[in-house]
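User: Just a sanity check before I run the rest of the batch. Below are the structure tokens for the first item. I only need the designed sequence back.
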């Protein structure tokens, strides 16, 4: 995949650098400040899940690649060699009702699906590839 990439060890100590990288790349595509915060939030949620679950019993790197997609928008691709995890297989959490009755977990993935236009997961060999496609909307210009 063409674009600009950042490769760092999977760990919370590198989260800020990953988020700054994504934010800087997305800013170049003209997204407004609200949309930038949404992109940052979703990227952070995906990365923290990778740090905590994909590499729960081992260490490894994450490669984050950003690129434009013509007039369509902006693409973020997050690759890791951790445990397989299809973000699209998680059911939508129960968000209605009393908070004390809700099951823990799943809200971050829910936000990703609500805020990112396309969320694509694939496994190639021993690599997880999570792709976010963020459309360039008229209001973002």
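Assistant: Here's the designed sequence for the first item:
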């Amino acid at each position: 995949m063409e674009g600009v990439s950042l490769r760092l060890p999977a760990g919370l100590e590198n989260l800020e650098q990953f988020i700054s990288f994504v934010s800087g790349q997305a800013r170049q595509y003209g997204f407004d400040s609200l949309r930038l915060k949404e992109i940052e939030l979703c990227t952070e949620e995906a990365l923290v899940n990778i740090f905590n679950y994909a590499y729960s019993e081992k260490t490894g790197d994450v490669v984050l690649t950003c690129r434009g997609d013509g007039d369509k928008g902006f693409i973020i691709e997050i690759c890791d060699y951790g445990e397989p995890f299809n973000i699209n297989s998680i059911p939508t959490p129960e968000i209605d009702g009393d908070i004390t009755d809700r099951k823990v977990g799943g809200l971050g993935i829910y936000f990703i699906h609500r805020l990112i236009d396309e969320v694509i997961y694939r496994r190639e060999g021993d690599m997880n590839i999570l792709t976010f496609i963020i459309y360039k909307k008229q209001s973002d210009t």
